[in-house]
Amino acid sequence: MDVEVAGGVTVVTMPERIDTHNAADVQTEFDELLSGGARTIVADLSPTEYISSAGLRVFLAVLKALEKNGGRMVLCGMTTFVADVFDIAGFLQLFTVAADRDAGVAAVS
Amino acid sequence: MTDVDEGATAGGGSEPDERRAEAQENRAETVERRFAASAEQVPAIVAFVMEHAEPWGVHQRRRMQLQLALEEAVVNICDYAYETPPGEIVMRVEPSTTRFAVELVDEGVPFDPLAVEEPDLRSEARERPVGGLGILLVRRVIDEVTYRRAGGRNILRLVIGRT
Q1: What would the DSSP string read from start to end of chain A?
Q2: pLDDT of residue B23
Q3: From A88's CA, which of A54, A81, A103, B8 has a CA 20 to 30 Å away?
Q4: Residue A88 with chain B: CB contacts under 8 Å
Q5: Which residue segment(s) compose the domain that B48 sits in?
Q6: Do A90 and B122 touch (CB under 8 A)?
Q7: A24 touching chain B per CB within 8 A
Q8: Is B23 a domain residue?
Q9: What is this model's ipTM?
């Protein structure tokens, strides 16, 4: 995952797929960001064409970790498929969603 | 015509005969292949099904949904079906004139994933259980999902249309 930190906001570019195959790796990368002190995260999902429940679980775990330490996360750039999967799982109610990266950064700043 | 891939078995019993007959009436071609019941096999299983779904004419959006359902269903079988993993999954593809059906057959312990209670989607993040989402997704993106236990096998059947 590509990570940029600017003005206290950590912007993470998500991979093309977040599934059973790579969810553990994605989780590890988020864990490293969190243990490195990231508290305000924008996850840019615009490259992500496919996500399964394994990917949803990663986002839920990150959200829970951030809620515990007073952090925030905004998701942005969701493709139709990803938005559908989040919607079915009821995750659109849990997360703050922004249209694109700029709107995402603005939402947490 | 029923075409069984080399290395695959015909399911070993009389159970699929009726469905075969029905499929033949629709001039369909049933194809089976056997895979190890391991999450690592998901890409191979998806590729096998897509090989048949694409020429049959499943719309792009439906193909993504089918891919999702396959991943979730296969991972579910890998997690629950075999007390001493890994077992095997037979993938059976049944295209007909009006619908595209996929059956996932395993010889694991009896397990009906559709009998599992759906997660409470209204709960807050901190209370949200991590399980149960996979099967929920399968049920929502596939037109018709059915489970049956026959001949010592769990058979999960997914049916979709073209669009």
Answers
A1: -EEEEETTEEEEEPPSEESTTTHHHHHHHHHHHHHTT--EEEEE-TT--EE-HHHHHHHHHHHHHHHHTT-EEEEE---HHHHHHHHHTTGGGTSEEESSHHHHHHHH-
A2: 47
A3: A103
A4: 136-137, 140-141
A5: 32-160
A6: yes
A7: no
A8: no
A9: 0.93
